[in-house]
Amino acid sequence: MARITSRKNPVVRHMKQLGASRDYRQARGECLCDGEKLLGEAVSCGVPVTCVLTSDPGLYAAYRGADIFLATEDVLRAASPLKTPQTVLFACKIPRTPLPEAASNLLVLENIQDPGNLGAMLRTANAFQIGGVLLTGGCADLYNPKTIRASMGAVFRQPVEAVPLEALAEYLRGLPLYGAALTKDAAPIQAVSLKNAAVAVGNEGSGLTKALLAMCVQCVRIPMNPVSESLNAAAAAAVLMWEMYRAGNL
Q: pLDDT category, 34, cuts 50, 70, 90?
């Protein structure tokens, strides 16, 4: 196993750029991930791992398919964009999980800007068997290291597609679209069947745009304590996805 001790090493620079630049990730077709759990998830999902940087010499025996470099904790901190990097940092090919031909339910995310929220939503979507996630508008980068970490490996398994708003109807494939919004005519979620449906969740601060709301057959709201204005976008999406799962499976 080769050892890296310099922050200026080309491998360190490559990983640092993967973590910092969306354009660089797209140009190289790679993304940056951290943690042995995520490494195991990538391998089990068949995602090619191209390079591993670790302070754990015992890792070599487990992952012989990639270039593995032993590094100091100082070098790991230099390569990682995260404040608390783990003992493993690795680069892998950007995973591509296309939407199935016929999904019974879909989650539409519009202008979700926080990568942590996006990753949490992907994790929940995978847990509740959401057929596909459609990203529209200015969503955070799906392959931002913070998105990947928050997804806990779901980014390697969950079907996701970035879709222009004008093409959204085509991707819905006939499923009725419900918008999560606090409008006057919004129906409580228990009054609407979310079986064989799509649900849209909007930006953390401003919600869904008027253009997307116009595409919805109905707005829905989550009943809650009246003194509480709203839920975090990821929490609201989790409640809605549970309702979709319950409607189709319980």
A: very high
Nearest CA among 71, 18, 35, 65 for reference residue 153: 35
The backbone torsions φ and ψ at residue 123, rounded to the nearest 5 degrees and listed phi first, read: -60, -45
Spatial contact of 90 and 51, defined as CB atoms under 8 Å apart: yes
Which has the closest alpha carbon to 156: 146, 167, 142, 169? 142
On whether the CB atoms of residues 118 and 139 are closer than 8 A, the answer is yes
The helix/strand/coil state of 161 is strand
148 beta partners: none
Backbone angles phi, psi at 245, to 5 degrees: -65, -45
Kindly list the domain boundaries of the chain, sorted by start residue: 2-93, 106-249
Which CATH fold topology does 2-93 show? 60s Ribosomal Protein L30; Chain: A; (3.30.1330)
Cβ atoms of 53 and 27 within 8 Å: the answer is no
Residue 224 identity (one-letter amino acid): M
What tokens does 103 get?
């999904």
**Burial class of residue 186 in the structure, from the number of CB atoms within 10 Å of its CB (0-12 exposed, 13-18 middle, 19+ buried):** middle
What's the pLDDT tens digit per position in 198-248? Answer: 999 999 999 999 999 999 999 999 999 988 877 899 999 999 999 999 998
Beta bridge partners of 107: 133, 199
Span 106-249: which CATH code? 3.40.1280.10
